[in-house]
TrEMBL record:
Keywords tagged on the record: Signal
Top-level taxonomy: Bacteria, Pseudomonadati, Pseudomonadota, Alphaproteobacteria, Rhodobacterales
SCP domain segment(s): 51-160
Residues of the signal peptide: 1-20
InterPro entries: CAP_dom, CAP_sf
Protein name: SCP domain-containing protein
The organism of origin for this protein: Rhodovulum iodosum
Pfam families listed in its UniProt record: CAP
Amino acid sequence: MKAFTISALFLALVLAGCDAPPPRMDATGKPLPRAYKLSERDAATVQYRMLDSVNALRSARGLTPLRLDSRLNAAALAHSRDMSAQGRAWPFGSDGSSPYDRVARAGYAGRLGTELVSQTYETELDTLAAWMEDPAKRDALLEPNAQDMGFGFYQEPNGLIWWALITGLPTIAQGNM
């Protein structure tokens, strides 16, 4: 009888926590992604959370931390918006620009390290985890000579987020903004 009472109590506690509706499922029975909602007010928080996460990964490898650079942030934000307008995550701008062109246009005098792009409904940290699973993208993030980073995003009304991360290798004469 005591086992029944404990089981009933456990079941009651579990059911009491079930006020939330069940997740929506796709045609295959998998849960649909839940949109990660961002606003422009979140930009600095998201940028620094990504910077801290990248630097933690770099530190674990004995690499120097990256600095957030406003010019690279501007280039990443512009490309995020442009990828949304084009409907594809890729390195070319709608005007035919390359990552090199966009970094120069933003006023960054150093060299482009890398540009990583993505479209997803997931968080910036989920996106970073996906980039780290790809050996080429992981190597780009862990480039020993990179010193600067820019990160930008654009979220469509439907929740789809376009991410762009740029690393840079500054010239000696260039200061950081």
